[in-house]
Structure to design on (308 residues):
């Protein structure tokens, strides 16, 4: 049944010459039919190089928006109209504008997990893997980091010579992991390496053997000799188990499941291809250009950024 639908999707995408992008947090059956997989920034760069004039982004809205920002001439379709990232919407752009008015000497750094409207009022974007490099290279002593206080706190712990102010936002999925989860998993699998995403709170990161982006976690987990406890979305554990059936991968907490990333089904992708589903991304050109500026700055300062 699933295989039949995958075959239909592959046939239709070829006939209609449509590219499919899938974030690493998508289900394995969606990753299998995608032209490109990876984190949100990797996908937006990959999309700009795809020959297809139309692309379907399997993920959440800010990811499809980022594809459109970098590829304005392409038709970009979000796989599920209701798929959003709650963290990306935890601040109104007006709040950032008001902060800037009160703190004219502060640079505003936005995690890539932000709406287009928010990017448009910030100075530079970062990904989880490029954040340390970009913040340390930024020509500013005072920085407001939005929206994720956990990623911001990790950056602050590593870059001690800058004044980094944190916004009180967070990823509700990563923030739901408890110290008890960590204690129980360490006790159950004492020899396993603990790999964590910096969206986890500081009291959880204390248990990590490795802290890195989604791509960094995948790379480390595939290469290291030990079994691994994975502290990020469950889909990464599913992916790793397929890639290395000879190793054991354990999910740090049952809470690590993002309902929004899981909204997209194979049927949604099929209906995007038939024109019955999905949501086309349409951005005002002036807004797109303002939102592109911090992404261009990220590329300039980071050179090879990647990570969710
Ligand atoms: S896992 Fe967290 S940051 Fe990622 S899309 Fe879901 S809510 Fe947003």
């Amino acid at each position: 049944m699933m295989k039949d639908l995958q075959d239909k999707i592959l046939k239709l995408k070829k006939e209609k010459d449509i590219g499919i992008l899938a974030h690493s947090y998508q289900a394995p059956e969606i990753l299998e039919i995608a032209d490109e997989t990876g984190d949100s920034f990797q996908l937006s760069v990959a999309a700009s190089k795809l020959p297809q004039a139309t692309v379907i982004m399997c993920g959440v809205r800010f990811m499809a928006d980022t594809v459109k920002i970098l590829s304005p001439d392409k038709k970009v379709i979000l796989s599920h109209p209701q798929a959003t990232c709650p963290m990306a919407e935890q601040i109104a752009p007006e709040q950032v504008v008001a902060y800037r008015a009160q703190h004219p000497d502060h640079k505003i750094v936005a995690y890539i997990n932000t709406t287009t409207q928010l990017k448009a009022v910030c100075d530079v974007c970062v990904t989880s893997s490029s954040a340390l490099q970009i913040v340390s290279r930024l020509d500013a002593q005072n920085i407001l980091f939005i929206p994720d206080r956990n990623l911001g706190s990790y950056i602050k712990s590593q870059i001690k010579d800058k004044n980094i102010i944190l916004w009180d936002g967070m990823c509700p999925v990563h923030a739901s992991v408890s110290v008890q989860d960590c204690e129980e998993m360490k006790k159950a699998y004492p020899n396993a390496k603990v790999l964590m995403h910096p969206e986890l709170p500081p009291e959880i990161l204390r248990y990590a053997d490795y802290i890195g982006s989604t791509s960094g976690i995948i790379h480390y987990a595939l290469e290291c000799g030990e079994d691994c406890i994975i502290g990020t979305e469950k889909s990464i554990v599913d992916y790793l188990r397929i890639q290395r059936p000879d190793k054991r991968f354990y999910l740090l907490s049952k809470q690590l499941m993002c309902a929004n990333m899981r909204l997209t089904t194979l049927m949604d992708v099929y209906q995007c291809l038939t024109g019955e589903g999905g949501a086309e991304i349409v951005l005002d050109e002036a807004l797109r250009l303002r939102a592109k500026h911090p992404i261009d700055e990220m590329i300039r300062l980071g050179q090879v950024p990647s990570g969710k």
About this structure: The domain at 174-251 is CATH 3.40.50.10800 (Rossmann fold). The pocket of iron/sulfur cluster is lined by residues 60, 85-87, 113, 171-173, 233, 258, 260-261 (CB under 6 Å). The chain has three domains: 2-84+262-286, 87-172+290-302, 174-251.
